[in-house]
Amino acid sequence: MATTLVIRLSSLGDVALTIPVLYSVAKRYPDDHFMMLTRSMWLPLFVNKPSNVSVFPAYPYTKHKGIKGYKRLFRELSIAVLSKEVKVADLHGVIRTFIMDCYFRLKGKQVAVIDKGRKEKRQLVRQNNKLLRPLKTTPDRYRDVFENLGYDASLSFTGLFPEKPAKEKPFQIGIAPFAKHQGKTYPLELMEEVVHRLSECPDLQIELWGSKQERKQLEGWAEKYPNTTSVAGQMSLPNELFFMNQMDVMVSMDSANMHLASLVNTPVISIWGATHPYLGFYGFNQDESHSVQIDLACRPCSTFGNKSCFRGDYACLRQITPESVVDKIQAFLFHH
């Protein structure tokens, strides 16, 4: 029985995208053991995992912090895996994981590392001579790593929970209006108008999603508009996943919530600004026709949405009208 150490430390969305691939491979190879190394805060993400998958937590802010902490992590991993037949699937591909890869190669272990397609992504986001074309998706890049280790990484994953039965009205709409960077965040005054318009429809129940830091803003909207409640900062990650599974549709940015909803088979209406689905970070198994975006010569301008708008006006987001977002949601719910 081989043990494969699978490495993806962050971020939440990227770790979420490992699950369809990891679970598919693990189920196809029940005699192998798959140890997922990721940040401790993401452990609750791995619900209903196959019995041959375990999660090894990294604590980058406490016992694994700094050089001493990194050495401690190496020692702990060595105890856990080096006495076994080990392969390493590096799904992260950054300096700190390259060091880990070298360590295992020196121990004679087979290591495969993700090709992130950095060059082609730069060609896609540059201002001049932009090459606008769809790139390989992140799950497909993860699959390549497992294939290079000799696994059949065909996808069989269908969701963290059993398929949900069709429900009667009112429809439940989850709205997650925040993202990590401004280039990925639909302006809040425009999103509030989306909530306002949807709240006037008697067949809809709106649930607002966000973190504890965003709770006050969303509770203000919930008090202001009928048929609207906030669940921001009120649940653990496993409970969030279960509750997302009850939604008829989620409305989100290019953010972690898009990926979480995708894991539980909930359709997502996603709003895109500085980034683009062509970069390969679209929600797993989501229909790209459900995205909301406008064509601008400067889009996309950033792989992660963390660059300042060189125009200074974030037209890629501000030119998306609340009406167009509401129309997309209603078309999905009432004409799907």
Characterise the protein shown here:
With 336 residues, this protein is α/β, with parallel strands linked by helices. It has helices at residues 12-16, 18-28, 66-81, 95-106, 118-125, 138-148, 188-199, 215-224, 237-244, 256-263, 315-318, 322-335, and strands at 3-7, 33-39, 53-58, 86-90, 110-113, 171-176, 204-208, 228-230, 249-253, 268-271, 291-292. The chain is globular and about 60 Å long. It has a 6-stranded parallel β-sheet, with helices on both faces. It has a 5-stranded parallel β-sheet with strand order 3-2-1-4-5, sandwiched between helices. The chain has 12 helices and 11 strands.
Structure keywords:
2 domains, single chain, 35% helix, Rossmann fold, 336 residues, six-stranded parallel beta sheet, 12 helices, alpha/beta, 15% strand, 11 strands, five-stranded parallel beta sheet
